[in-house]
Design a protein that fits this description.
The chain has 193 residues and is mostly beta strands. It is built from no helices and 12 strands.
C-alpha cells in the first residue's frame, strides 16, 4: 500500500465522503500543520481513522469538500478567509483514487484576473440524484450578508449544477438568481444515499 500512515492534530474544517464501495473518507484541515489539507480513510464502522492518508497536499486552506464524478475524485477548498465577506475562491484538486495523489485542476470561483466570482466562502458540494444521473451543487456562506451581523443569520449561495468538460474539468461558476431541478419521479428511500 502506497498510502501514508499519519496522524494529524487539531483538525479544523472537515467533510465526509462515502465512496461507491461504502468506504468512507474524511477530508479536513489540520490546524496544527499550517492549515494543511489531508484525506484519511475511516474504519468500516466510520468511527475512527485507519490512519491511511493522502498526506498534506495543500496548506493555509479551509472549507473542504470531497466528491466523485465519473471515476474522478474531487477535493475542493480554498485559502483561509475565516468569515470573510468578500468571499474566497474554490480550488479544485483531482485524483484517480480517494487518497490521491491529488493535482490542482484550477479555481472555479476566481475569474481570469484572479477576482472572486461569487462573494461567498465554500461550505459543501452537495450530490443530488437527478433524472440523468447525479448533479453537484456548490454551496457557500455569504458572510456579512445580514445587517444584524449574526453569523447564523447570514445567507447562503447554492449554484446551479456544476458543469463538467469531457476531461473532468469543472467550468467556472457564474451567478444565477434561480434555477430549476427535476428530480426522478420514483425517488424513494431506496434511491437515497
Amino acid at each position: 500500500n502506497d498510502n501514508v500512515k499519519v496522524k494529524h492534530e487539531k483538525p479544523g474544517d472537515h467533510g465526509l465522503f462515502i465512496d461507491d464501495d461504502s468506504n468512507a473518507y474524511l477530508i479536513y484541515t489540520s490546524i496544527a500543520n499550517d492549515h494543511g489539507i489531508s484525506i484519511e480513510k475511516l474504519s468500516d464502522d466510520y468511527l475512527s481513522s485507519t490512519l491511511d492518508s493522502s498526506g498534506i497536499f495543500a496548506k493555509e486552506c479551509e472549507a473542504v469538500s470531497m466528491f466523485k464524478n465519473n471515476g474522478i475524485y474531487y477535493a475542493v477548498f480554498d485559502k483561509c478567509c475565516c468569515f470573510c465577506p468578500e468571499g474566497t475562491g474554490a480550488m479544485v484538486y483531482t485524483a484517480k483514487s480517494p487518497l490521491g495523489p491529488y493535482k490542482l485542476q484550477g479555481n472555479i470561483n476566481r475569474n481570469d484576473s484572479n477576482q472572486v466570482i461569487i462573494a461567498a466562502q465554500q461550505t459543501h458540494i452537495a450530490t443530488i440524484p437527478a433524472l440523468n444521473g447525479p448533479i453537484y451543487i456548490w454551496m457557500a456562506d455569504r458572510w456579512g450578508s445580514r445587517p444584524d451581523g449574526i453569523k447564523g443569520h447570514d445567507l447562503q449561495y447554492w449554484s446551479g449544477p456544476l458543469q463538467f468538460l469531457s476531461d473532468g474539468t469543472i467550468k467556472k461558476l457564474n451567478w444565477q438568481d434561480s434555477w430549476t431541478l427535476e428530480l426522478p419521479a420514483n425517488h424513494d428511500e431506496n434511491n437515497r444515499r
